[in-house]
Amino acid sequence: MEPMMKRTELDQTSIDELWSLHVEVSDLLQQRIHEEKLKLEQRLKLLEAPASGRRRYPPVSAKYRNPDQPFETWSGRGRQPRWLVTQLRAGKRVEDFRIKKAAGGR
């Protein structure tokens, strides 16, 4: 890259030469702005791309518990678990398995 022109050199330059310098600088700036814009758009695409095809949902607390196996719970979303389907076929209600909230909890 050539060194910057000194102020005295610019003062002695003709209008035609200054205009051609202006056009050259404008073209160079447009080219660099375009290149930077492309780089930023590529980086933005990387940030927007989800890690997987599924949307992330916030964790949901369990609302129902299997009394026979207390570690088996269900949030009430998605398919009903086998243990609950079996109990429902046996004549019980979904509400029979609802987890009781603590008295001081929200």
Please describe the structure with a list of short key phrases separated by commas or semicolons.
two-stranded antiparallel ribbon; 106 residues; mainly alpha; rod-shaped
Q: Can you characterise this structure?
A:
This protein is mostly helical and 106 residues long. It has three helices and two strands. A hairpin with a 7-residue loop joins β1 (64-65) and β2. It is rod-shaped, with a radius of gyration of 34 Å. It starts with 6 loop residues before the first helix and ends in a 17-residue tail after the last helix. The mean pLDDT is 87.
Write the layout of secondary structure elements.
Blueprint lengths: L6 H5 L3 H34 L15 E2 L7 E2 L7 H8 L17
Antiparallel strand pairs: 1-2
The chain-level structural class is mainly alpha
Main sheet specs: 2 strands, antiparallel
Average pLDDT metric: 87
Number of helices: 3
The proportion of residues in beta strands is: under 5%
List unreliable stretches of 5+ residues: none
- Helix coverage percent of residues? 40-55%
Reading the helices and strands in chain order gives: HHEEH
The neighbouring-strand order within the major sheet is 1-2
Distance between the termini: 67 Å
Number of strands: 2
| Mass-distribution shape | rod-shaped
Structural Rg: 34 Å
